[in-house]
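Next comes a concrete protein, fold included:
___
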Amino acid sequence: MLQNDRLLRALLRQPVSQTPLWMMRQAGRYLPEYRAVRATVDGFMGLCKNPKLAAEVTLQPLARYNLDAAIIFSDILTIPDAMGLDLQFVQGEGPKIGLPVRTLDEAKALRIPEPEKDLHYVLEAIDRTKTGLANRVPLIGFCGSPWTVASYMVEGGSSKDFRHIKGLLYREPEALHLILDKLTQAITAHLNAQIQAGCDAVMVFDSWGGVLTTDAYHEFSLPYMKKIVDGLIKDKNGVRVPNVLFTKNGSEWIESIAQTGCDAVGCDWMMPMGTLRERVGDKVALQGNLDPSVLYGSPKTIEAEVQKILASYGHGSGHVFNLGHGIHQYIDPENVDVLVRAVHEFSRAYHQ
């Protein structure tokens, strides 16, 4: 039994005493203790593939802050790595895929990984983290969305113009659909394995869905996320396992996202929470949506921005406070403490 289940209750729109809070990339480079651990391993994936250290850095922010959840330290590109696409993280350049997938034949050759075999290190890290958490707070598992993961696989790494994957989309959509279908199978299996390993909730990060047109989003991103939601384990040992879908720059499509059957929708900072709540009603919970750059501000500014978001969402449950995207590496860790305290303190009035 979890000592603090506010996150799970809020994701299911059940009453809570205060708004729960966690942060995207909360285990990361802004923390000196993370940088110290990162310096002991060879490369970013060396840390991801070391279950002992991955669990250690997952727990680091919980030792500093009164957060309402942990999120397992991993990466959305573990799946293409398990597919044998020669993933490397190049210093100063980010991820590189040595064997990009750009043709129908290459898509047909893709192997769907087996989580227990090919991604066992993630599952072991989850097991170790659950032991370390000792039922204090829930643990969140995650994967990238099929479209977002495919973007890296087709581009061969990060991209500013997405010319290879958008070219494939308009030139040979059959090949792209095959890639997305195989990724959907792989992601669903991996998320379910994470749930079986101990994760209490799961999230799908569609970081690049917002680069699509409305028609393309509804053909090449959203339907595949719906298939994932449909295929997820919903209950484990009689306890509901909530799921969250997040499309960066996807506020325009929030009604469509809410209709997938997901429990909650992650929101970036481009639209007020109150507006988003009005648009989805009581269909889903909402997660977000502080601009991460607010954390460069003074404590008073951070507190004021927190109060704006809480007031915008208004009274009642169904809100998980979070950043609109990942925390920046140059944020002062002390400002995160200001954020956590402010959310918990100021949110109580909205749950009376």
User: Anything to note?
Assistant: The chain is about 45% helix and 15% strand. Residues 104 and 223 are 20 Å apart (CA to CA). The chain has one domain: 6-351. The two ends are 25 Å apart (CA to CA).
